[in-house]
Write a structure and sequence with these properties.
Two copies of one chain form a homodimer.
Chain A lengths: L8 H14 L12 H8 L3 H14 L2 E4 L3 E4 L3 H4 L9 H7 L4 E12 L2 H7 L6 E11 L2 E11 L16 H9 L5 E9 L3 H6 L8 E9 L5 E9 L6 E6 L2
Antiparallel strand pairs in A: 1-2, 3-4, 4-5, 5-8, 6-7, 7-8
Helix pairs in contact in A: 1-3, 2-3
Chain B binds a DNA duplex (19 and 19 nucleotides) through helix 3.
Chain lengths: 243, 243
DNA sequence: TAGTGGTCTAGACCACCCT
DNA sequence: GGGTGGTCTAGACCACTAC
């Protein structure tokens, strides 16, 4: 039998309370039980409860008032598709209330461009695997992404890549690399005809352009992401708690 | 004599360690003293140290490796202008290495539009104060913002508003309202001639458009912000730690 | 094996809000 | 005054890494 490591208590409490918020057992605007009561009910320390509530507060799910209590945000629906979803476009689309689907447009291996060598710290004459995918929401094209992965990193045949899985999952499975952090730049752009075609030929200009570099915990850039984001289909929302 | 409330220990430790990182006493890539050593040196508990290090980790400043140690991010310079700066455009520009300046373009009082009444939950025939400002970086126009504040909220004459101060500061001073959270939507847009003129007539299309609603802790929308963001002058960066 | 960060606890005291 | 969230501590045990 495989030993099943128990999840951290804080994660279990997070899941439980998130469920209660999602299905309105704690309705928007209502006051939560006090931290001490929650701790007693769930059998954990108040510190653990506070860890979880701090997460929710930073997401804007709850508001805490000293001397009064903790309240569910009345505008839950505007708040639950936040930028954290940028990790995983499928989940972002899902959280926005649409059915996500992914189509692999192309998968090829070629020499790295000068810019790619620069950003990925590669030598000349190095090959990269380029994966182009289209994320749709209820069948409407929403996000077109291009991922550039150094060929030397891949431990399997490129054709074995499963485009249906999140990119961080692919990296872990096929490259044994874990992502530690990401830097992104958000710009506005005009798409050319070849990319416009991927969106069904509609006029989608201007569009959001996300430029991302993913690093491992040794500070090495692992791979690049370029995403054309049609904000008219799935909104790009941020929610931030003050302070 | 005024009693000076001591800052929370975690904030003081944050300031001290941030200074050490900024002036390279802990150089990029180096290993920090262990949590226990830092706790002992600074005279606080390890829990307090961990609170601070968690902040830094979420900003991407440091990387923590279980069983090994805590390391300063080698790419500090790419990391220190993050979206947290969106709170305050002046500080964002400063953090990007430019000298910020603010010019008040106009300040007027007029009836609220239908959309403004909707978003601010106002009755018909209500007036709003509209403040338009231009943020420049080293003299180059970077961000054009329009703030819409309900006239009923203002406790001073609109002409007394000081456009040089951050908007949250203005709100606190002139309206006695504190911001609890913000929702933002990021889009791409094409600016019309009147706005292009504010940017000196250069071709700045397409541009980023930030649409923000600010709430107080009673969940009431306090005011609106619309910002045209020329990402060619000051980049809009996000940094996110994994997990 | 020693030392590190990760998790969790029980409890203290404070600042604040409500009644 | 009584209850709430905010801050902070001392200490336990675990998982992991480097040696």
């Amino acid at each position: 039998m495989t030993i099943q490591r128990a999840l951290p208590l804080a994660d279990q409490v997070t899941a439980e309370l998130r469920a209660r918020i999602r299905d309105r057992r704690y309705p928007p605007g209502s006051r939560l039980p006090s931290e001490s009561e929650l701790a007693k009910e769930l059998g954990v320390s108040r510190t653990t409860i506070r860890t979880v509530l701090s997460r929710f507060a930073s997401e804007g799910l709850i508001l805490r008032k000293q001397g009064d209590g903790t309240y569910i945000n009345e505008r839950l629906d505007e708040v639950d598709t936040h930028y954290g979803g940028l990790w995983d476009f499928s989940r972002l689309i899902e959280a926005s209330g649409y059915a996500p689907s992914i189509r692999t447009i192309s998968l090829e291996q070629r020499l790295a461009s000068a810019e790619e060598r620069e950003r990925l710290a590669l030598d000349a004459d190095t090959s990269v695997v380029v994966l182009e995918r289209l994320f749709s929401a209820d069948g409407r094209p929403a996000i077109y992404t291009i991922n550039v992965i150094p060929g030397a990193l891949l431990q399997v045949d490129p054709s074995a890549l499963n485009g249906q899985r999140p990119i961080h999952d692919i990296l872990q499975t096929c490259c044994n690399e874990r992502i530690a952090y990401v830097t992104s730049t958000i710009e506005a752009a005009t798409v050319d005809k070849s990319i416009a075609k991927r969106f069904g030929g509609q006029n989608i200009n201007p569009i959001l352009l996300l430029n991302e570099t993913f690093y491992n915990d040794r500070h090495s850039p692992i791979f690049l992401g370029t995403s054309f984001y049609n904000f008219r289909v799935v909104k790009l929302n941020l929610v931030r708690a003050w302070g």
